[in-house]
Structure prediction request, 199 residues.
Amino acid sequence: MANPFKEIMNIRKEELPLALLMYAYFFLVITSFWILKPLKKGLFITFYDQSGFTLLDWHLRASQAELLAKILNMFVAFLAVVVFSILARRFRRQQLTIIFCMFFMACYVLYSFVINQPNGLAVWSFYLFGDLFSTLMVATFFVFLNDSVTPSAAFLHKLCHDALRVKGRSARAASDDCARVRGFYRFSHSVGWQPAEHG
Prediction:
């Protein structure tokens, strides 16, 4: 029986460094988010657990105040998308990644000084910061990944993926087709001819 992971991890030798870097990048972004998520929620609930939160004439319990924070997150996400779009037009993708990484590192350093004795502002901003991290860093990752892969390489992978999805074909036959497509691709580039990429 063919190993299903072999086809999923069908990475050429020259693609391996980029693939490993992208795996590591995405792993660190997602891991950071899943560490940040319980921290922001725990800090918020703990801070308002005893006294609750008063907004104008409304007195909200901690869980109700968190629902209000989730609504506020939508506005922060909208603002983040606007800022992201403006910066994406001005900077190259590598620069954009560095800008957002530096911004979040600076925020982490800032929160390290105030998180042990938080006030209301620190609690609310840290809660919003947690979702802002996932919104911006995941988007930045995919923009960076998109710019790191050439259209012709993506087209080649699509051809191989389509060959693997044909029903009734053995994994060996599909793998042979992928090898032929890759061989043709390398040959076409060695003679200076590039096949047209299709959408």
